[in-house]
Amino acid sequence: MVVQPMDYDQAITVIRNQITMQPKIGLVLGSGLGGLADAVSERTVIPYETIPGWPQSTVHGHHGQLVVGRLEGQPVIVQQGRAHFYEGYSPQAITFPVRIMCLLGVKTLILTNAAGGLNPAYRVGDLMLFNDHINWIGMGGGNPLVGPNDERFGPRFVGMTHTYDRDLRRTARQAAAEAGVPLHEGVYVCLAGPNFETPAEVRMLRVLGADAVGMSTVHEVLVARHAGMRVMAFSGITNEAIDSVDAGMEASHEEVLDAGKILVPRLTAVLKGVLRVLA
Ligand code: HPA
What we know:
Elements: H1 9-16, E1 25-29, E2 41-47, E3 65-71, E4 74-80, H2 91-94, H3 96-103, E5 108-117, E6 127-134, H4 136-139, H5 166-179, E7 183-190, H6 199-207, E8 212-214, H7 218-226, E9 230-240, H8 253-278
Parallel strand pairs: 1-4, 1-5, 5-9, 6-7, 7-8
Antiparallel strand pairs: 2-3, 3-4, 5-8, 6-9
The site of hypoxanthine has 13 residues, from strand 5, strand 8 and strand 9.
């Protein structure tokens, strides 16, 4: 199987025809976190289904639209909802939007997701800033950079040591402190899903050094880093991962969406602070 190159031109034309500003910062909002886009002013809203090649999100809690406008004065393009590997999309399809943002001139990408807390210190409603990740899906070959390399974006082989920009992380810590929002910093592990983890898997992931577990983000990060974008990512902890078969509870998507209600104001405060510094 050889992965076919994607056609970005039609999507770019549809978006450019509707926007007047040049977005500099891209934001990707995960499960239950779409409410952050409400803070965007001077907004143009473009439904995903009107953009050729754009992957539709089929998951409850994902809005399915692009919002272009200003946040704290900064020109932003916001993906309100994303597509996932577990919905049946290829890694290349999931990351189509990141390539479009890149072609529109976005230099900094900020990603968010809902995640399970593996670190025993993490509680529902906490925020974790990524300082690294484990690409569990990618290790099995589910990597968006597999296939002919598109030299327009970046090189064949990509270093991953400095994936989560150190200056951006410092900015995030400052913004969180100023907003009075506690911020963990840790390692995210991306699994394929859609099932949540077994207790044995939770214990294994802890041994591997992961602090939060989810089903997204890492593909987008790879494509952004391939294209030389600066990357920052946050997990909103929506549930504490269950590590015992005798626990009297079960993880659920409802719990994930409920926690989004606590997380949106916290994430909004931190991201607004970050954008003010980036201005
Ligand atoms: N596991 C995987 N993905 C998730 C979880 C989880 O516990 N919570 C939210 N997304």
